[in-house]
Amino acid sequence: MRGLRLPRTESAHLPSRPYRYVVSLLATLALLAVPAVASAANGFREQVASARWSTPFQCPDGSAAADGRLIVETDNFIEAGTTPDLNPPLRVGFVGQCPDGTFSWGFVQAAATRFDPDLKNVSVSGTFANVRDNRGGLHTVSTDARWIGAGPIMTTVNGPGSMRKERSATATATIVFDGNTLVDGAANFPFPAPFIRVDTEK
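^ thats the sequence. predicted structure below, dont judge the formating
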């Protein structure tokens, strides 16, 4: 059985300020993923949609903080000859800086997802209990995210049998953390911008 993994995203040169928490956020998500081994002989498709937000938030001590970072990604790995999972992995991760240090949480859970094969739109939703933060607390997180494709589909041939189709997108989400709305609106973190992508290996 294939383990969960993070999608392969393009590298971006990020300034150290004010985006210094992005590295911590990606590290948080990386800890949630289990390395996967794909069968190159069988081939696969991988459907990915990703977006990021910058948002104020409430620290565990009740104080308010600015500039928290949130990432929402859906990643459906489909081995050749199989049908797409209607509940593929959803990855949500958050990191922010509180007066007493970093506060972060994240999860990888199966979630109801609709992914248009022509990269026109993607939607994913679900409510998840027992989401653990880096200080040992447990939380309930509800996620409702949508991507709408914008502009042309860009096709890249990586080699024989290997192809990527990617489309820029707009993304909106409502994220409720322990009953309080953390995000409600369009993705506003620019690096990288929201996208919808399909990687194919034959």
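Helices lie at 22-32.
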